[in-house]
Specification:
mainly alpha; 14 helices
């Protein structure tokens, strides 16, 4: 598979230029895209995949969050439960038809460059793999029944996305991400269902999250779902999870909760040496 990176990057810039890059949420998703693409390539390289497969992994990173820009334009939020499944929307914008061949609603996006970003993929035989990985990258689990190769690329993209989500939560004001205020964040508590889920060592279901700090804990719980050794190495090296769990709450109960979460995650990561 041959990919013209320069043209993909140019088309991505032209696509995102149709949105307000001065908006903090738009800017963070542009930066996130580039970082996820690089992480996808790095994970593929660590798995000693072929150069062509590393290119495909990079391309998945560039594709994966296309739906976020329309989600933000239409709904002014990144919370899928309050708006739209951004991954499915991205797959529809990029590919126009579902995996089954069903024609999707093509009126989601106002961006006239939609669909053009993928024309620089020389080998169209990878379309099903690309669409599948984009469509399921934010699902709770990778669907069963996928062929081994497709499943592997899905996990590469999901690992890369999770790793950089930790950075986004640390470097971006949380009130911007979660559409809340600093005052609410400072006094919110982690709900007991989210605490229990975290301590069971799996990603927290969206349906359990009730408070802004539930989202913080939920994003850190994504570490439990990582697949590749390189992903765990990167998470440890970066240390974003630990900084996030030093959350500056003004609520004594929340401070104690985050201390418990920090201890639990440290124990888990110690098993990933």
């Amino acid at each position: 598979m041959q990919i013209d990176r320069e043209n993909v990057l140019r088309e991505f810039r032209e696509y995102t230029d149709a949105y307000d890059a001065s908006d903090e949420k738009t800017a963070l998703k542009i930066k996130h895209t580039y970082r996820v693409a690089g992480l996808c390539e790095q994970i593929a390289r660590s798995e000693e995949m072929t150069r062509e497969e590393q290119e495909l992994a990079w391309l998945l990173g560039m594709f994966h969050d296309i739906g976020r820009f329309e989600q933000l334009r239409q709904y002014h939020t990144f919370i899928d439960a309050d708006s739209v499944d951004h991954a499915a929307l991205g797959a529809e914008i990029l590919f126009g038809t579902g995996i089954s061949g069903r024609q999707e609603d093509s009126e989601h996006s106002q961006n006239k460059t939609e669909g053009r970003i993928r024309q620089y993929v020389a080998d169209k035989s990878e379309d099903i793999l690309l669409e599948t990985a984009v469509r399921v990258h934010s699902a709770y689990r990778v669907p069963e029944g996928l062929d081994e190769r497709t499943s592997r690329f899905c996990h590469i993209l999901r690992d890369a996305d999770k790793i950089d989500i930790l950075r986004v939560n640390l470097e971006t004001p949380l009130e911007e991400i979660y559409n809340t205020t600093r005052e609410v964040l400072a006094h919110a508590e982690v709900t007991e269902a989210v605490m229990e889920s975290f301590q069971e060592r799996h990603a927290t279901l969206r349906s359990l999250k009730r408070t802004p700090v539930d989202h913080v804990a939920g994003h850190i719980s994504l570490i439990y779902e990582l697949v590749f050794p390189e992903s765990f190495r990167l998470v440890k090296q970066q240390g974003y999870w630990e900084k996030l769990l030093q959350f500056p709450s003004e609520n004594p109960k929340t401070i104690r909760q985050f201390a418990r979460l920090r201890e639990e995650m440290q124990k888990f990561l110690n098993t990933k040496e």
